[in-house]
Amino acid sequence: MEQRVLAKNDQLAERNRDWLTGRGILALNLMSSPGAGKTTLLERTITDLAGDPPVSVLEGDQETLLDAERIQATGCRVVQINTGSGCHLDADMVARGLRALAPPERSLLFVENVGNLVCPALFDLGEAAKIVIISVTEGDDKPLKYPHMFAAADLVLLNKVDLLPYVSFDVSRCVAAARRINPGVPVLEVSATRGDGLTDWYRWLRDRAGG
User: Fold this and answer.
1) How distant, in Å, are the alpha carbons of 16, 42, 57, 79, 154 from that of 70?
2) Class of residue 186 by CB neighbours under 10 A (exposed 0-12, middle 13-18, buried 19+)
3) Which pLDDT belongs to residue 108?
4) For residues 187 and 143, is the Cβ–Cβ distance under 8 A?
5) Whether residue 5 has pLDDT greater than 80
6) Half-sphere exposure in the Cβ direction for 133 (13 Å, CA)
7) 8 A C-beta contact, residue 177 and residue 140
8) pLDDT by residue (tens digit) across 128-140?
9) What confidence score (pLDDT) does residue 85 get?
10) Most buried among 76, 87, 101, 209, by the most CB within 10 A?
11) Proportion of the chain above pLDDT 70, given as a percent
């Protein structure tokens, strides 16, 4: 049953990928546990990029419009996808969200997945890259506890580094664990609130977007 579900999802994901690629839209799947700072990072990123390139967001949560309202307050195009009891977005949800969102050609699309370090790793959405966000408040053993998520990552963002003086978190141990699972995966240390490392994050985005 699980294999049939994933196979159907993969077919729909390829349709999404073809649709996005044909329009020059770079779609990025942001995944993390709840509270790692995905929405705050998105708010800061949208504001700092200032439309270069244009950005739109598909916002995934089980319930509420709270995060979509935060994104909308930046002036960004956003569509909320509520999954109810579902613990992740899937390719069909994203396809329906894309029809409602209608992101412009040659733009950047962020898909903020449901906060969860397990299920989202299994479901291809048609994205160009998967980005895993972990905060220093969560513990440096997360890559070892959730290996499938980190194995799927094209980029790891280590967020809230401004809190390192106040928490027990070994950056080198966390990075080593991530690369034991996913050799060579890039890891960027950032603070969405203070601004640490965001220049490197924006450079990575523009490199992937081709500009």
Assistant:
1) 26, 10, 11, 12, 26
2) middle
3) 97
4) no
5) no
6) 28
7) yes
8) 999 999 999 999 9
9) 84
10) 76
11) 98
CB 89 within 8 A of CB 122: no
Give the right CATH number for 2-209 from 3.40.630.10, 3.65.10.10, 3.40.50.300, 3.30.70.1050. Answer: 3.40.50.300
Tokens for 14, please give them: 């390829």
Say which residue the tokens 């809230």 belong to.
Answer: 160
Strands of 26-32's sheet, edge to edge?
77-82, 55-61, 108-112, 26-32, 129-135, 155-159, 187-189
Instruction: Collect all residues with Cβ–Cβ distance below 8 Å to 181 and sequence separation of at least 6.
Output: 143, 144, 147, 150, 151
Let me know how many helices (H) and strands (E) the chain has, helices first.
8, 7
- Kindly report whether the global pTM for this prediction surpasses the value 0.90: yes
Q: Residue 196 has which token pair?
A: 């640490």
CB atoms within 10 A of CB 65: 13
- CB 126 within 8 Å of CB 94: yes
Q: HEC profile for 20-45? A: HHHCCCEEEEEEECCCCCHHHHHHHH
Q: Chain-centre distance of CA 18, in angstroms? A: 20
Cα–Cα distance for residue pair 32/91, rounded to 1 Å: 18
